[in-house]
Amino acid sequence: MWKRDQAVAPVSTPPAASVQPTQPHPVQPAQPAGKPAEKTTMDLGTSVVIKGELSASEDLTLCGQMEGSVRLPDHTLTVGPNAEVKAEILAKSVIILGSVTGNVTATERLDMRSTGSLIGDVASPRLVIADGGTLRGKVQMTVGSTASSHSGPRKVEAVG
Q1: Which long-range contacts (CB under 8 A, 24 or more apart) does 69-72 make?
Q2: 67 in Cβ contact with 48 (< 8 Å)
Q3: How far apart, in Å, are the Cα atoms of 66 and each of 45, 74, 107?
Q4: Residue 56: HSE in the Cβ half-sphere, 13 Å Cα cutoff
Q5: Residue 7, helix vs strand vs coil
Q6: Are 85 and 69 in contact (CB under 8 A)?
Q7: Cα–Cα distance between 29 and 159 in angstroms, integer?
Q8: Could you report the per-residue pLDDT of 5-31, keeping only the tens digit for each?
C-alpha cells in the first residue's frame, strides 16, 4: 500500500544535488509607498463586556456591552445590532445599529440605521437617520471639514 502512494509522487522534482543555495530575499513593505494602507477593523463580539475607557487607532465594531467612554478621533465606530452601549462617544464617524445611551460627538458623520436608537445629545456636521431609527436628545450640527467655514453651528432639537 505504501509503495503505491510513492508511485504517484510528482515526476518533475529536480534531484537534490542540482538545488543551488539561494540568497534570502529582502523583506518587501506590506504596501507600496504610493498606496494607502489597508483598513483594519477590530470586532468585539457579543459576549464582550467593557467597563471603562476604550480608545483605538483603528476602526472598531462593538457587538457586546460597553459602559464608560469611547475615543476613536480618527476612525469609525460601529455599534452592532445587539450592542448596548452606555458611554460618551467621540469618533470620526459613528454608525449605530444597536442601542446607545450617552452623548455622541462625530467629527464627520453620525449614521443611525433603522434598528439603531440613541438617547443623548449629538454633535456632528452630518446626521443620517434611517426610517425606524430613534433619537431622543439635542442635535448640534457642528462645522466640519465638508461644511463652509464661515457659517456657525446650527442647533436642531428633536422632540421624542
Answers
A1: none
A2: no
A3: 11, 20, 21
A4: 19
A5: helix
A6: no
A7: 53
A8: 555 555 555 555 444 444 444 444 444
